[in-house]
Amino acid sequence: MQNTLFKLLLLLALMPFSVLSQTNFLTQQKRYERVRKAENEKQEYIQKVLSQNNLSTNNVNLLFIAYKEEGSLHIYAKTREDSSYKNILTYNICAKSGRLGPKSRKGDGQVPEGFYYIDRFNPTSSYYLSLGLNYPNSADRKRAGNASSGGDIFIHGECVTIGCLPMTNEYIKEIYLLAINARNNGQQKIPVYIFPFEMTDENWNSYIQKYGKQSYMTSFWENIKIGHDKFMNNKKEVNFKIDNNGDYKF
């Protein structure tokens, strides 16, 4: 008995820290009633969707793309080993606030536009379940200058918003469940790209003509469109830096 216990302790000691921390993350999330409820109700559906795309909850990475004008959130996924993503699910965003254009000030009601990642998981959110974005990123802060750029932007449940992406409780169960599995697989940062509209050639020409007199907005869109097009061309996570002006450099 003592020999068996010693071997077990030795095995745990030799396991990579990342494996232990991943297991602990999922276990920790399942301590919360809403996460357990999401798993009970949605696990079978999520496993089916993943299986249809040759993926599994044990090997999935995610990338989210939101379009403000169309009110849609697209879930892209791949295995850890693959480099390119594919769209596996698309959801309607339940409600909108603000207008087209980036968020730049605290209290402006705007949904951000740009390149972010999920940095928080809240299983006891006031909006059921929520996934926090790393807004403001350094691009937002540099564009805001001395003004406060605000914060606390989430993908969450319910159907109300001031600058967030509300998905309803039913949909956030699925999205949150996917996200905690990706995090448990070792994906530390799940990318979230938010664009003002679907940047097809037809849409681009239409919106640039419509907003052409607002040069600040259109120049910003020209900047983020480079990253948009890079992703659409190869479906790979976009690599970028942010310069001193708050512009993305791809």
Q: If you had to describe this structure to a student in words, what would you say it looks like?
A:
Helix 2 packs antiparallel against helix 5 and helix 3 packs across helix 5. About 4% of the residues have low confidence. An eight-stranded mixed beta sheet has the order 3-2-1-8-4-5-6-7, with helices on both faces. A two-stranded antiparallel ribbon has the order 9-10. By secondary structure, it is of the alpha+beta class.
Describe what is shown at a glance.
The chain has 250 residues and is α+β, with helices and mostly antiparallel strands.
The CATH architecture category equals Beta Barrel
Number of strands: 10
| Main sheet: strand order | 3-2-1-8-4-5-6-7
| Shape summary | globular
What would you give as the CATH superfamily?
L,D-transpeptidase catalytic domain-like
CATH hierarchy, class? Mainly Beta
Number of domains: 1
Largest sheet: 8 strands, mixed
Sequence stretches where pLDDT stays below 50 over 5 or more residues: 11-21
CATH topology: L,D-transpeptidase catalytic domain-like
The total of helices stands at 7
Write the H/E string, N to C.
HHHEEEEEHEEHEHHEE
Strand content: 15-25%
End-to-end separation in angstroms reads 58 Å
Mean pLDDT over all positions = 92
Helix content: 25-40%
- What's the assembly state of these chains? single chain
Radius of gyration: 20 Å
Structural class: alpha+beta
